[in-house]
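Team,

Forwarding the record for the chain on the shared tracking sheet. I've put the sequence and predicted structure together so nobody has to dig through attachments.
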Amino acid sequence: MQGKGLDISLAAGRLFTVWGIPVTNTLIAAWTVMVVLLVAAFIIGRAPTMLPTRVQNLFEMLFEYVLEFMERTLQSRELALRYFPLIVTIFLFIFTSNLFDFLPFFGSFGVEQGGVLVPFYRPVNTDLNVTLALAIISVFAIELAGIMALGALAYAKKFINFSSPLNFFVGILELVSEISRLVSFSFRLFGNVFAGEVLLSVIALFIPYGAPVPLMAFEMFVGFIQAIVFAMLTLFFIKMAITAPHSPSHSAEGMHVVQ
């Protein structure tokens, strides 16, 4: 959608190609976020001390809180340690990507193509390809966790069960539910971030002074919540995946997550 002073596109802008592979502005932004996170991790964790500094102490407290929460959820310290890097990485990548959306160089300069400015940087999670990739990683990790915990045959019984017509029907519903997570994960994140980007663009066009500031603060909060939701849903679905099929605890947890 393009109007006077306003250009909104669902697709990411293609900047150039490398060996026939298109490089988009969201891809550049995603790599920038990853580099920033890697540099921050190196600086913060390069020289831990027995007597921690304030920064080290802050991160240790935050990570320990998350680890304890995961331990209570998964009911295992070993499992919490196993999936801690995945859950924290998902949260940090999504949250940092959402914060980067408000930096001044996002969308402010780029290259002109066909009379339209294609910015070098575009908010990462406004690209459905990115959110779908995150969803695939999350769902793959969930399924792998279930197979590792229960074994391939036992885990398959959640979806393929011929013991009775009712159990067969329930298994089909479970399979549809697993597949639908790709849609729910990707479109929830994409929809919220893209809608916020459009809203800020429209408000900035018509009321450029003052009005965008509280909306930007609200969108930063929304970005934080979306990162938590994505990470926590991944954790809860892992818990459901490692629970034996058709057990009382599995049914109760499934009802809780659906609610």
